Amino acid sequence: MAEHEHEHVRVAVVGSGFGGVGAAVRLRREGVTDFVVLERADSVGGTWRDNSYPGCACDVPSHLYSFSFAPNPDWPRTFSGQEHIRAYLERVTDVFRLRPHLRFNSEVKKMTWDGQELRWEIETSSGRLTADLVVSATGPLPDPKVPDIPGLDTFPGKVFHSARWDHDYDLHGKRVAMVGTGASAIQIVPAIQPDVAKLVLFQRTPPWVMPRIDRAITGAERRLHRAVPLTTQLRRGLLWGIRELQVQAFTKHPNELGLVEQLAKRNMARAIKDPALRAKLTPDYRIGCKRILLSSDYYPAIARPNVDVVASGLSEINGSTVIASDGTETEVDAIVFGTGFHVTDMPIAERVVGAEGRTLAEVWKDGMEALRGASAAGFPNWMTIIGPNTGLGNSSMILMIESQLNYLADFVRQLDVLGGRVALDARPSAVHAWNRRVQERMKRTVWNTGGCTSWYLDAAGRNTTIWPGTTGEFRRATRRVDLAEYAVLRPRTDVRTGEQDTVEAAV
Prior knowledge:
This protein has 507 residues and is an alpha/beta fold. It has 2 domains: 7-143 and 342-505, FAD/NAD(P)-binding domain (3-Layer(bba) Sandwich); 152-213 and 239-337, FAD/NAD(P)-binding domain (3-Layer(bba) Sandwich). Helix content is 29%, strand content 19%. The chain has helices spanning 18-29, 47-50, 82-95, 185-192, 219-227, 229-251, 258-271, 275-281, 298-302, 360-363, 397-418, 428-442, 446-449, 471-477, and strands at residues 7-14, 35-38, 102-103, 108-114, 119-124, 127-136, 158-161, 175-179, 198-202, 209-210, 293-294, 307-310, 314-318, 321-324, 329-331, 334-337, 352-353, 382-384, 423-426, 486-493, 500-505. Strands 1, 2, 3, 4, 5, 6, 17 and 18 form an 8-stranded mixed sheet that branches.
């Protein structure tokens, strides 16, 4: 524990998923080598390490769900599985020589801004260190959300969340309750349905499900991509362009999505012949309001005789009996929660203490907001990757991450140009102005007008998750740091007492 106790680094990156690995690569490419990547687990991968449930895969095409600076010509499928994505991140870590910077089993317990020294004091499970700049790349999906169900603690069977899958527990021949019908559940259901004796699916709100056009990428395609790298770029560009063209329907013309709903209904009708079951599975909100899910085997699995759909949430557990809000009772041996994550109340925010002695969670208690999705007022030299209003409803988050890495790179350059001990603190006026513009644009989007309650919305009903524009727009907005949006902080020594404090410097 004492090994790194008094260590000081220029940059501390928190998390080693796509955001953290990407930040580490970008720092090295900018010539910054004095940095560490703090990771609470024992390997890189983030959400693609934690989520290893049966059927786990990405719903964004592989050639778009990868870094532009680290193309992979060898993706095995158009939509690759969790194991391939995790292996890709391990490979990027090796290719860009990031291993010496990694600190595994180093969960961040607390980060506190020291206004006199203009640096962050960081407490981790493996010791203490200080850093001039912190890049928080924990992402929105690190901590599973399990509802507080009466009787859950007395359930005699097995209970786990999809993001904490117990691979030692054999579901074969078991009666299983699947709670939730989100992106994880629609992959888990078809993966376990053939093995379980009975599967009871608790569905509070049915999702819109489109076909997943997945196939193996042929050996000839992979050889071509290896021999002519431009073909990989062209493939990625085509995938990107198609999704950019879709944005208008989501953000400005939600009524145009009716045709897409018809396609989703046809996808359902092909597998679900029972009118009563089809009625249960048909959403009553505009497609896109919640995340559109992709699957070609979810509905066929639900149609099997060993699957029951309960159109209600789980409300109570009595012994081995799970009880739905509509009174439906079923005996089960195991409960699997596919109930999402703490997205609009990021747990890391409880551990970050800013310049005024308040945690980020306290500052964000009325809703998350950050300048250009990166900087929070009162938290100097602290940036977040995949921050407020940087999420997407139809494209690859890697595009947004790379845009924020551009912003990070320029942030570091600005600190270098300013020179000496210096910090940049986002001005509250700039943060609020940015957020007002984002929320104003959000008003007409399908995520706010589609008639649903989604995890995109916080407790007050504000959409603090999604970016209401194209990825190209966001890239332009984060190309450079505008110093007018920041207070430049420098230490000042009182000539009478010798004590130091912080003063905003003129630029």
